[in-house]
Design brief:
mainly beta; five-stranded antiparallel β-sheet
Length: 493
């Protein structure tokens, strides 16, 4: 019998779900837009077995992919495990075999050398495949229609990097998927690979370079000519792993860098410009774009570490006020002889994370951004406050051209998961479309899928789709049109 820890990561709304499901025509309120025809995929960490070493962080759960197939004014649901090598080995053993997050020194000897991916960070659609991604390993591919697991993608060994990002970008000019792999030559190394994959799914470029120091490189940006990579000191090393400390810890004494890496076949380390600034925290990225010789990079920035589960390396207590991140623009000038930033500009006073844009404008000048907002002025049920962690209780729309904002609050007993923008059509103007996102109903332990008019979120969702099973807190997700993945009508098993 599985006995999960009696701790916040495994109880209440965070209780492991471990449910695969097929449900046709979910009940909903409002009107699902008839023009919506496609599938929203998202992933949640959902441990198959209790952690081998006791309590664990949420980031270490097995990947469970949810698909919301929206068509003909209705929504069908399918949920499947991403069957990684880890998932299969533990399934066969009937227990957990892998230890601490990104620490192979704590694993059962029987799985030594095995790919440790949980495939739990992003559900991505590209080249006719569903990619279940975890940045410490190659990406796992699945069939987007059946959701059956296929294999880890290494292009028959052509990819030399040991890792592949969980946050790829699509170049709107070439259609290529742009990716990085950090710790490319092995755990805790300072090697990074830069890769591009064609719309046909072929690996067409892989170039390596060194970074100033090893750290979590969870996200990045592109422009038409450059890969833009921020280096923020959530650092790790083998000494930490040997001491069984959390893989990453935040170091407030180290500088932050912004790397401008030319996207070209003959890339050399000396081609890269590293710009330097004082300490701060930043993780996810809105976008980046070029303006003459200048590169603008937009990210939610906080004064200090936002991840309490990756604690301060010097022992300082977690400071939630200093962890508040706000949309910020970093600007560097490639014509400058200095390695200093030209400017750091606050774009909004709203506090939030999980930023998203209209992905058709990745790497280009853009106008709109959406993010999950933490609004401390709104009332919160006491039970919710005790279990929710970061209180992501609002959706925020940012108009970077006018400075205007819209906000929608989900209520005192709910929190929100990452938004995803869906264009009304392939050639619709920027921002013309919908936002889809999962809402956690924490008191009732249920979940809803919310659909908004993307540029009019203040009026609330145009449709609320009720999910009859509880979805755990998820990470990232993406939408694909039915015609692009061969998805017609969901076949219920």
């Amino acid at each position: 019998m599985a006995h999960f820890p009696d701790s916040p990561n495994f109880t209440g709304f965070n209780t492991p779900s471990r449910v695969e499901a097929d449900i046709s025509d979910l009940a909903h309120e409002g009107e699902i837009p008839a023009e919506l025809d496609g599938a929203f995929y998202r992933v949640q960490p959902d441990p198959q077995f209790p952690p081998m070493l006791g309590d664990d962080i949420a980031f270490n759960g097995d990947g469970m992919i949810s698909r919301f197939h929206i068509h003909d004014g209705q929504c069908d649901f399918r949920q499947r495990w991403a069957q990684t090598d880890k998932w299969k080995a533990e399934r066969e053993a009937g227990r957990g075999l892998f230890g601490l997050y990104r620490n192979p020194l704590t694993d059962d000897p029987s799985v030594k050398g095995m790919i440790r991916s949980t495939a739990n960070t992003n559900a991505w659609i590209y080249a006719g495949k569903l990619w279940a991604m975890k940045e410490d390993s190659p990406a796992l591919t699945m069939d987007p229609v059946t959701m059956e697991t296929e294999a880890f993608e290494t292009w028959d060994g052509a990819m030399k990097s040991q890792t592949f990002t969980a946050h790829p970008k699509i170049d709107p000019n070439t259609g290529n998927m742009v990716a990085i792999g950090y710790a490319a030559s092995g755990l805790c190394t300072d090697d990074v690979s830069y890769m591009e994959v064609s719309p046909e799914g072929e690996l067409v470029r892989e170039k390596w370079f060194k970074v100033p120091y090893y750290c979590m490189m969870h996200d990045f940006a592109i422009t038409e000519d450059y890969l833009v990579l921020h280096i923020v000191p959530s650092i790790g090393n083998w000494e930490r792993l040997e001491q069984k400390k959390p893989h990453f810890g935040f170091d407030t004494t180290m500088p932050v860098y912004l790397g401008i890496i030319p996207r070209k076949d003959d890339l050399k380390d000396e081609d890269i410009r590293w710009f330097k600034r004082g300490n701060c925290f930043a993780s996810h990225v809105f976008n980046a774009f070029q303006e003459g010789t200048k590169v603008h990079f937009d990210t939610p920035e906080a004064e200090n570490n936002m991840f309490p589960f990756f604690p301060d390396v010097h022992g300082a207590e977690f400071d939630p006020m200093a962890a508040a991140s706000r949309p910020t623009r970093w600007t560097v000038d490639l014509a400058s002889n200095s390695d200093e930033f030209e400017s750091v500009e606050r774009l909004s006073e709203s506090v939030g994370e999980f930023p998203r844009i209209d992905d058709r404008f990745a790497g280009l000048p853009y106008r709109y951004g959406w993010m999950l907002e933490i609004d401390p002025a709104k009332p919160v049920d006491s039970e919710v406050r005790s279990i929710s962690g970061m209180l992501l209780n609002s959706l925020c729309l940012l108009d970077f051209q006018t400075g205007k904002e819209q906000h929608w609050w989900c209520g005192s007993s709910s929190t929100l998961q990452e938004p995803c923008f869906i264009p009304r059509s392939k050639d619709a103007p920027e921002g013309d479309g919908w936002i889809v996102m999962v809402c956690n109903r924490l008191n009732s332990h249920t979940s809803d899928l919310l659909i908004f008019d993307a540029l009019d979120i203040e009026k609330g969702p145009v449709a609320t789709v009720h999910v009859p099973i509880r979805l755990r807190f998820g990470l990232h997700g993406n939408f694909a049109r039915s015609e692009d993945i061969g998805l017609k009508v969901l076949e219920v098993a």
